[in-house]
């Protein structure tokens, strides 16, 4: 595998940004690790961080490079600060950045596939919200999305009315039913004739976001969306996410012929 720390300029944000990128490499002589790579452009997992983290966190807290080595899977890990993957009401356009600019820039730098069947997204906490938001707003671009302990009910969270939530989403009363509301997006995808991404969702039963996750799970199942849901004892911490990202990689509809 190649681990690349990539600094680049975002026209959308008007500032310099960073991402970590893991690229597949076929290897046979590394001690304790055998890497695989497909011919041509690589299938890609966009792996999103939580609210207090950055683009380095998945590499620092898990063995993600080792986990993906035999899969021939590229991983793109961008930094979006505390934006909630949203075009902020009082801030920068991080939704446009993550959904439009970042994939185009990453594909211009690296041999990443643009085919829907080769594109996946996952994240934890705030990143779980971002992952489902990307897949539900663009089901034509992503074959699968995974949320680990996701902050999935932002309308309920925004109702707290703190300054930070207002800076992100604006008037909290307008979040429910908007393009930032995963519950509304799920209904839209369920009612459409278009493709429906596979969804994976997990949350620990001691997590402060457990109730939010149960609400979204019930909603998605009522709509008939293709959701795999798992819960077990666990809280909002990296021991849990390190285990569950391995489960996500097993679950992904990824071609295994490498």
User: Which CATH class applies here?
Assistant: Alpha Beta
Sequence of strands across the biggest β-sheet: 1-2-4-3-5-6-7-8
What distance lies between the first and last C-alpha atoms, to the nearest angstrom?
14 Å
Pattern of helices and strands? EEEHHEHEHEHHHEHEH
Structural class: alpha/beta
Helix content: 25-40%
Radius of gyration, Cα only, in angstroms? 17 Å
Poorly predicted ranges: none
Q: The CATH topology is what?
A: Rossmann fold
GO molecular function: acyltransferase activity, transferring groups other than amino-acyl groups
InterPro entries: AB_hydrolase_fold, Esterase-like, Mycobacterial_A85_antigen
Protein name: Esterase
Pfam family, one: Esterase
Descriptive labels:
258 residues, alpha/beta, Rossmann fold, eight-stranded mixed beta sheet, 8 strands, Esterase, Mycobacterial_A85_antigen, acyltransferase activity, transferring groups other than amino-acyl groups
């Amino acid at each position: 595998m190649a681990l690349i720390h990539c600094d680049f300029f975002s026209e959308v944000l008007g500032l310099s940004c960073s991402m970590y990128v893991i690229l597949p490499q076929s290897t046979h002589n590394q001690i304790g690790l055998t890497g695989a790579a497909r011919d041509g452009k690589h299938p890609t997992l966009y792996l999103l961080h939580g609210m207090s983290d950055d683009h380095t966190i998945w590499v620092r807290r898990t063995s993600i490079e080792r986990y993906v080595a035999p899969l021939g899977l590229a991983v793109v890990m961008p930094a979006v600060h505390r934006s909630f993957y949203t075009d902020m009401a009082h801030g920068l356009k991080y939704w446009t950045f993550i959904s439009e600019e970042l994939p185009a820039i990453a594909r211009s730098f690296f041999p990443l596939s643009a085919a829907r069947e080769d594109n996946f997204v996952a994240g934890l906490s705030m990143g779980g919200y971002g992952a489902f938001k990307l897949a539900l707003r663009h089901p034509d671009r992503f074959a699968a999305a995974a949320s680990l302990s996701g902050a999935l009910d932002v309308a309920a969270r925004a109702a707290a009315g703190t300054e930070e939530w207002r800076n992100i989403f604006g008037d909290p009363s307008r979040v429910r039913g908007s393009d930032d509301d995963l519950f509304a997006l799920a209904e839209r995808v369920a009612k459409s004739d278009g493709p429906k991404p596979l969804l994976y969702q997990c949350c620990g039963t001691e997590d402060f976001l457990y109730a939010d996750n149960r609400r979204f799970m019930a909603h998605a199942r009522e709509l008939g969306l293709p959701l795999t849901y798992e819960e077990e004892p666990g809280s909002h911490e990296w021991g849990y996410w390190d285990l569950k990202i391995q489960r996500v990689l097993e679950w992904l509809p990824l071609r295994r012929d490498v």
